[in-house]
Amino acid sequence: MNDQRLRLDLTELAEEVTVVDLRDRTLRTSRRLGIQRAVATSAAALVLIAAAAGTAFAVRPDRSPPPLPADSPSVTASPTPTQSPSSTPSTSTSGAPGSPDGGSSPNTPTAKIGKLFYGPATVTDAKSANLRSWRPGGDTVRLLSLPEIAAVGNVSVSPDGRRVAWMEDDGEGRTTIFTADVDGGDKETMRSGVERNCVTPVWSPNGHLLFREAKATGEPGRYGVLDTRSAKKTVRWWDTEPSACHALWSDDGGTVAMNTSAGVTLFDADGKRQRDVPGLDPSGTWWSSHIASLSPGGDRIALYRFHPGSEDQRDVGRFLQASAVLDTRSGKQVTLPLGGRELRQVYFQADGSMVVRVKAGSGYAVLLVGEDGTKVSETAEPATLKDMQILAVVN
């Protein structure tokens, strides 16, 4: 059987998958992460080839979330505080020297780093979890509380930092997108009957949401762009239905990056295919099913990549850790000034600069890296955030 025939057969099988509850698969072990991850489809093994439905979330069911440190400043913006879940284990080694666990480094310019939004890094047995925000030089702010599975696996922050969008299941096989202010106020129902396994709600630069509908059979359907500000919540449907999972929208509005059978493919704002990112193919040296951030013009992408066969390729859920930044035209890796430390996350800002999160001692530090690749500043994160992951950086 040749490769092309195999791909076609697997694609046909993937179209017949039956979605199961997210909690039904929370105990499947991931060799790569070394932790438990929750899977939302019984055919997750097919997704990397067919780019069909399937998602997984990092879990740690054997450990309860630790209490927040008492000496860490926090401004409460939600009446329902929760504990911070445990951290995601390291996936690479670091020979970095230690640095302070919290607070801002003295004499470090931080004005160009935007506001960072954080969510829990893993799923525990908690029913809910709070998001947080932090701007270097200031205190952490406790934001709204969400169902923990949404806070870990699908919540997204609007480009202006004022709203969040997330998905919830009604227990009867239907999934609904909600939005709310970051403090929890003005909650709105956006759309029901959306596909929950492959595409989480993704904000466009003008405040619209990209989503994928679910057919009556539960299979994924069309991609649509929902106008969150319109009274009728109107939708502009894509003419195409690419076989793709996850999505990132560039800050200039012109590019949408998604995981496909080619690794990562770039589309325009109407869903028309532009090009594949070179060097990401399961039959080659590198593979990726996890994308984290896209540059304003779509010319660079932060993602998690690995050698095919070296890791559990079935783990295809949203995973915001980054192991490399690539040029989307050449596929070449962009050099980052990490100082020998472990790279954890990368987020592009509107001016093309990057906020780079690195392991620093027992906590983390965020670097401001210019578009030319030079380090502008470095600030240690507060200790209260070390068990969380960055969801977005808003200027």
UniProtKB/TrEMBL annotation:
Where in the sequence is the signal peptide annotated?
Answer: none
Taxonomically, which superkingdom?
Bacteria
Q: Where is the composition biased (Low complexity)?
A: 71-110
Q: Where is this region: Disordered?
A: 61-114
Parts of the chain that traverse the membrane:
38-59
Q: Which SUPFAM superfamilies match?
A: Tricorn protease N-terminal domain
Would I find Zinc-finger among this entry's keywords? no
Q: Which UniProt keywords apply?
A: Membrane, Transmembrane, Transmembrane helix
Name assigned to this protein: WD40-like Beta Propeller Repeat
